[in-house]
Amino acid sequence: MNQPLICMTLTGRTLEEDVNLVKKYEKQVDIVELRVDCLSEDEQFYARRFPTMIQLPCILTIRRDIDGGKFTGGEFSRTNLFARALAFANEDKSRNFAFVDFEDDYHIPSIQDTAMAFGIKIIRSTHVMNPVEVNIKGRYEKMRKTGYEIPKIAFTPRSLDDVTSLFSQSREITDYEHILCAMGPEGLPSRILAAFSNSFLTYVSPNETIDCMKDIGHIDMLTLTNIYRFKNISKKTKLFGITGWPLIKTLSPKIHNAGYQKHNIDAVYIPIRTPDISKALNFCDRMKVKGLSVTIPHKESVLYYLGEQSPEVVQIGACNTIVKNGDKWCGYNTDATGFQIALEEFIGSEKIKRRKVAVIGAGGAAKAVVYALKQMGAKVCIFNRTEEHAQQLADRYGFNYCKLDTHCIEKLDEYSSLIIQTTSVGMNSEDKSSNELDPIFFYKFRGDEMVFDLIYTPSTTPLMLRASKKGCRTCNGYKMLEYQAYEQFKLFTGKEY
What we know:
single chain; alpha/beta; Rossmann fold; six-stranded mixed beta sheet; 21 strands; 33% helix
């Protein structure tokens, strides 16, 4: 099989809008897909012109609403659009559509014969929008009515296990071109690792229109080419990744993949999204993933699956890094080191010793933070909504604890010279501080507090914004992310970042 192509899906309302996007990104993609169903009703009648307006091969697609598209007219109307778009084909094949996408249940002999007569290849597609088990090879064989079609299956996985199955089943399909992808957030590996599934192409969207395709899990082509270096991925490429849920916005792939490029290492680091750590590890075992970053909510649940734990993991009770050694996973914690370096840069190492520090939260991230603060000689009080969890963590190091609610203001004020926020509250939010987005919304800042929020997306959280308006010094978690990633990189590759 050849290297998978990058296909940019065009969902503009006008042909001109789509042409402009092709001109902007034509160096990043190999082929484009014109989604006629996304064009305005007037523009749909002129789709035939499109191949002559660009310099790239083009797929003609008119996707029905039942298949996740926007075409709501009847099949008679859609057939007329296909006929208009394929009619009057040019003797110069480069000025015609190179491919046409027909669903598996769409069989109009005259239209199909017209396409084949002019050398237009047929993509025979099926879209399984509701999560079901998919027999990929069996369905492919039924879809190939002739030896000329390229079968395509796009399905919504029930869980990451279905994505794992996709790769396993695809290993048996090597004798003809096909397109295979899992949709939604858990399906992202199938798009990045198309080379591993022998897929003919992978679909991408430009940033300008990606919101139209976000529900089905499209990735933008600049991220695919610049961060994941898609064109360099082969079946020999070593795999690393990060697992968590929902893992919507993570900068870890950017950091790690830049390191592989810097050191000329044939490796790629990808998001593996799942709410179930066991399914992430099953994926990693089947795909021979060499190392994995572990984030919310799996830092504690992953411990059960480790064959070996570093002294830091044993002490902290949380793990953010696992490395495959033979047939077992070895667990490490780089959060503590990353946090310590970042905190020292923020306030200075000498200013931490004996300082009273408030830690908000008692989860996996908090455990690494508290461990580091103990090493640094700080005095800590742990605030958490579930008081029992705060007590358990505090007792491990001889620290104070307090239930996090409106009644803890006096205690929080006592330890407020440095406030460290470790929960996910406020993550991915650009909104103002509120009960839902600010874990200490009830606390009134004086202006002399320092606030360290482990969240890095957004760069200024609602809590940080409220604190800075009162004159407080604030710091987000990006530097901690960087420093812990450097330690992970060394564990994964044996090289300094």
